[in-house]
Amino acid sequence: MRVLFAGTPAVAVPSLDALVQAGFDVVAVLTRPDAPIGRKRVLTPSPVAARAAELGIEVIHAARVDAEVTARIAATAPDAAAIVAYGGLIPRAALDIPRHGWINLHFSLLPAWRGAAPVQRAVMAGDDITGAVTFLLEEGLDTGPVFGTLTEAVRPDDTSGELLERLSHSGAVLLAQTLSAIEAGRAVAVPQSGDVSLAPKLGLDDGRINWREPALALGRRARGVTPEPGAWTTLDGQRVKLEPVVLRPDAPALRPGHVLPDGKSVLVGTGSHPVELTRIQPSGKKMMAAADWARGQAALEGVVFE
To answer: What does pTM read for this prediction?
Structure first.
């Protein structure tokens, strides 16, 4: 079966590899254009584009699927298109090209967490179970009927990056199995049912820590925005980046945002019990252990995160 693959970030690479290893004829890859990376802003191919080049697969770079891109997709004559975190909308004209349609691997248990950040929102909401589905892409936001489902436990200390890494590999297997079932005529797509929740893309403000929140909610937020866009707070008007915190219900109460050294650890007050900082990146410096940061301060007495 001839397959067009659409994807951009690193989490989509296992799916591309899985389709190639399963013997599908991946005729082209659709991915976002090269983007500036790092402090020097060097134009860099997406992880999917880089992997496609290694595999010798034609790459179609496109920020949006316009008439020209649609024509290029049609020229590859795909029987099906597989899409994993491409990062753009697929218009009706392009959806109609493959006779088997576009099969989307989505990292949630639809209709829960429809949108661009399903794993991050699941971690922030404190979900115990999440997963991935393959579904037939429609013009609506993640509304199509579902072919296959897998579940994955959310571990208490999972960051969204760690959870997404696991799902990217198990989901790749599910995607290859779905396309195999479609090719064999055995696939059945079932309409979605259940409560709908939305997972809009995260912005910088989603990573800001509100120290008046209860520690449990604050900890979930920090894990949900790690690695992107990252947790942060402010100190003396400067933005300070944080890695996920540790809940410390055993520690003495502190006022929200107030910092207290506790032996080899650094505690911060919240709306409930304190949390322990793990790593911190002050403005203009590298990420470091919280204890090292604390030792570098003239005094922590009176230090308050805002």
So the answer is: 0.94
